[in-house]
Amino acid sequence: MHLSRDVVLLITHSADFFTIDRVAEALSKKGVQPFRLDTDKFPLQVQLTAHFDKYKNYHTIEYNNQSISTEQVQAVWMRRIWEPELSKELVPKFREACIRESKATLDSFWDSLKEARWIDDLQRINYASNKLRQLRIASEVGFVIPQTLITNKAQAAREFFVQVNGKMVSKLLTTLSHSMEPTSFFLYTSTVKEEDLQDADSLRYCPMVFQEQIPKQQELRVVYVNGNVFVGALNADMYAEAKVDWRKPGVEVGAWQHHQLPDEVVRRLQAFMGKFGLSFGSLDFILTPSGEYVFLEVNPVGEWGMLEKDLYLPISSAIANTLLQTDKIPISQD
């Protein structure tokens, strides 16, 4: 089945639900056809063909009995890119080659859509995903940030532990593969105890981020969509102290509360996102007992479904509206 001229491509994976469904529904209500592309189903269940000649270049893609051409796509929502599901019977070398070639083919497909409006462009997402760059720019626009150390030197980590009076957390600079089980000390932001640093020589294999542990009144998930701000708050005393990172399993349904950011914080947030040229981002802040807002990080493809579900915030509608705008978002040079 061929879809209409006005198509919005939704890039995700087959296990994704709720957020992808809500955005697809919002687009349909606006009279635009969504096309869901589950990247883990390529190449086994998704057929992609690239056409190049001296007159024009275009791609066609077929999935779930639907077919589109890149010429039909007016906008793209970059929700998730997943590794392909391939047979475990494939020998490792052939499997690696299939994954590599599939990724290269998809990269060509993304490039063929450069004239469409993206939320957000992959280059901007990758640029904004650098946590050290985030901290630098957050500081430049006026956000308060935690004292931070990134090192692969055990002694430096021990000295920083003393500097922050033993109130320290650790995290990774990058997101781990979705295939890793959530049992590692390194998966989430975790409290560091003095005994944890006794074996810190293993840092020489993998540098880590260490930050001062900020006192919390509330933790905030702030969702930015093209200048609009949606906020959910969790009271710090609602879950066990050991859960330094609310993204660990255990946050109860209904725990999220509405929260209003001060105008000055909103202005800094808009300046921060403008530096990256992003139209979307999920940001984490801590509100301290003294009323200070401390920036932690931004995820350019972060989660927000719990805020729409629990607080009825119209995030999916805001994303759909942004996808259907015709102007492109300029990128600032910081």
UniProtKB/TrEMBL annotation:
InterPro entries: ATP_grasp_MvdC, MvdD-like_ATPgrasp. Gene3D superfamilies: ATP-grasp fold, B domain. It comes from the Bacteria. Residues 8-125 form the MvdD-like pre-ATP grasp domain. Signal peptide: none annotated. Transmembrane segments: none annotated. PANTHER family: BETA-CITRYLGLUTAMATE SYNTHASE B-RELATED, RIBOSOMAL PROTEIN S6 MODIFICATION PROTEIN. This is MvdC family ATP-grasp ribosomal peptide maturase.
